[in-house]
Amino acid sequence: MYVKKIPENPECGIEIAIKVLGGKWKPCILDAINRGYRRPSEMHRYISHASPRVINMQLRELEEYCMVSKKVYDEIPLKVEYYLTDLGQSILPIIDAMDAWGEERRELITRIDEELQGVA
Questions:
Q1: Fewest 10 Å CB contacts: which of 29, 55, 74, 109?
Q2: How far is C-alpha 2 from the geometric centre of its chain's CA atoms?
Q3: In the chain, what are the domain boundaries?
Q4: DSSP-derived secondary structure for 83-97
Q5: How many percent of the chain have pLDDT more than 70?
């Protein structure tokens, strides 16, 4: 895991949340697991813009912070599945709110992106 050079503020709830959930795909990964995509290959198909390496790296970080648990099946080929822990489930209302916010503003944000790309 990347070690930051700037000290963290343990008194700031937003910093704590970003420490755990920061990373482009972590909320999407938690959402995917909640929707039943348990294996990394399934998550990659669901979140096709993220590389398998990044998904695996962020799954490992989510596991370190006890947001997900990993179950390894003793079979060949190796089978691994991820599940939300109670802590991981506790963030779902926030992820749902983020999803609703994005859906409601999709057209506006798309238009802004297009305008910004026209300027660049």
A1: 74
A2: 16
A3: 13-119
A4: EE-HHHHHTHHHHHH
A5: 94
- The rounded mean pLDDT for the chain is 92
Instruction: Band the pLDDT of 59: cuts 50, 70, 90.
Output: very high
- Cβ-based burial of 35 (10 A; exposed 0-12, middle 13-18, buried ≥19): exposed
Q: What is the distance between the alpha carbons of residues 74 and 105, in angstroms, rounded to a whole number?
A: 45
- pTM of the predicted model as reported, rounded to 2 decimal places: 0.86
DSSP 29: H
Burial class of residue 32, CB neighbours in 10 A (0-12, 13-18, 19+): buried
Domain 13-119 has CATH 1.10.10.10: yes
Bridge partners (DSSP) listed for residue 72 = 80
Cβ burial, residue 58 (10 Å; 0-12/13-18/19+): buried
Q: Mind listing the pLDDT tens digit for each residue in 88-117?
A: 999 999 999 999 999 999 999 999 999 998
Which residue type occupies 84?
Answer: L
What is the spatial distance between Cα 65 and Cα 88, in angstroms, rounded to a whole number?
Answer: 9
